[in-house]
Design goal:
SrpI-like; seven-stranded mixed β-sheet; Family 2B encapsulin nanocompartment shell protein; RmlC-like_jellyroll; cNMP-bd_dom_sf; single chain; 462 residues; alpha+beta; six-stranded mixed β-sheet
């Protein structure tokens, strides 16, 4: 067949043309705002020791529960040491007291205890949320706090057999474990140590958990009184942060590197994407690692429960009341920030948008909300709950800092090394890719978290 074309076809012409190529793209790359916001401290020896003024630490202010084979919820006996006067109690006594708890269910709006009622039962919330309310100075309703999973009330009144100082009302359906006052009295009658510790607690002779050892001072005096002598006591065993790491071995065949290395360097393209994956893993570990992850290092007094589930301006204001000294950044899942935006729109208070790190970010009270898809959901992204973190940043501000080694052999980025491991008999060159990092919270009030946040609530604005 005779070709009736009068010019060269595009298909044939493309055989002589060179395509313009991009470097390899990767959908999993995120802005990693946390890594960009953290002030990084170069660690010389691989260990970062945080020296602090002596602090009276008790625990996490939570009593852990579990479900046995038939689904009945039980108290973990060892966690009853969250009660100050049971810290040194025998395990057998704790097991006996744990067995005295019975399970009760409650519904939304149900009053669990009334203000002024005898505090004859200790309540431990297994699942659900409730609010503590009391009558204010002028007769108005005053919200004290919202409590959630693992929290308990009211230890002081239960121990002293005093009336309840507030009312507790359920915000959601849930389950609780309760113990009668008689169970504690029976243990105290048999153990003189527990009885003495209870008496000290009832008399107020105990340090508030989280309080620092006092420094004796005098002020406002006249004349020539004797001035107090004092010293600032330090922790005997300050916490040390060791460098953790993310690693992999990158393999590149020499045939690929030799023959297909232009115009894009194959080894460099492979290493660039591997570095991105290492940095993504680094950010996830800094947030969620069970030992040093920021979400797992929030002290008990710095945790706030979402009152209505959805993240509201009131909730973020509660966080700001916890980290009120130079707050730096909120950090939350993108869906959580979207849910917060909806709540602001519903109230007619749209948050201000500010430009940080080259991107427009929502802010609240001037504090930016950093999105990160590494923030986890409990129970799934669609119907589960998540958290919002608030941090103060910087070593000079006694805040949150990132840690990395000051120098590493074969370093290609700060704290990240690419070491040639040689070529094997199959002609494959291996490179050890290692990122060293950690993070530290210098003082307890540098960080706070909003827990049990729901993101599935939408509103009709029509």
């Amino acid at each position: 067949m005779v070709n009736d074309r009068m010019s060269l076809s595009p298909d044939a012409a493309r055989q002589l043309a060179t395509a313009t190529k991009t470097t390899p793209q990767m959908r999993g790359i995120t802005p990693r705002y946390l890594l960009r916001a953290l002030p990084w401290v170069d660690v010389e020896s691989g260990v970062y020791r945080v020296n602090r003024r002596r602090t009276f630490v008790l625990g996490d202010d939570r009593i852990t529960t579990y479900a046995d084979n038939d689904g009945t919820h039980r108290i973990v006996p060892g966690d009853l040491r969250e009660m100050p006067y049971l810290r040194d109690a025998d395990e057998a006594l704790l097991t006996e007291l744990a067995g005295a708890f019975t399970e009760v269910s409650f519904e939304t709006g149900q009053v669990l205890v009334q203000s002024g009622d005898p505090a004859d039962r200790l309540w431990v919330i297994v699942r659900g949320r409730a609010e503590k309310r009391m009558t204010g100075r002028y007769g108005e309703e005053a919200l004290i706090e919202v409590i959630g999973d693992g929290q308990f009330f009211d230890l002081g009144s239960w121990t002293r057999s005093e009336p309840m100082p507030y009312r507790v009302q359920a915000l959601t359906p849930g389950v609780a474990l309760v113990a009668e006052r008689g169970a504690l009295a029976a243990l105290a009658d048999r153990d003189a140590g527990v009885r003495a510790a209870m008496d000290d607690y009832a008399a107020g002779n105990h340090m508030v958990p989280g309080a620092e050892a006092p420094v004796e001072l005098a002020s406002g005096h006249v004349g020539e009184p004797d001035l107090p002598g004092t010293f600032v006591d330090y922790e005997d065993a300050p916490r040390e942060y060791h460098m953790t790491l993310a690693q992999t071995v990158l393999r590149v065949h020499t045939r690929v590197a030799d023959l297909y290395n232009g115009p894009i360097d194959q080894t460099r393209a492979q290493s660039n994407l591997t570095v991105q994956a290492l940095r993504e893993r680094q950010e996830a570990a800094l947030l969620n690692h069970p030992e040093f992850g920021l979400f797992n290092n929030v002290p008990a007094g710095q945790r706030v429960q979402a009152r209505t589930g959805s993240p509201t301006p009131d909730d973020l204001d509660e966080l700001l009341a916890k980290v009120w000294k130079q707050p730096g950044y909120f950090l939350a899942h993108p869906r959580t920030i979207a849910a917060f935006g909806r709540e602001c729109t519903r109230r007619g208070v749209p948050p201000v948008v500010d430009s940080r790190f080259g991107s427009p970010l929502l802010t609240w009270r001037g504090v930016p909300l950093l999105p990160s898809d590494k923030v986890r959901f409990n129970g799934g992204v669609g119907s589960g709950t998540t958290e919002i973190l608030l941090m103060r940043m910087g070593e000079a501000e006694q805040g949150v800092v990132g840690l990395r080694p000051s120098s590493v052999q074969d370093e290609i980025e700060p704290g990240l090394a690419m070491r040639n491991m040689g070529t094997d008999q199959k002609g494959i060159t291996s490179y050890l890719m290692t990122a060293y990092f950690n993070t530290a919270v210098l003082v307890e009030d540098a960080i706070a978290v909003l827990q049990n946040v729901e993101v599935s609530n939408y509103h009709d604005y029509s």
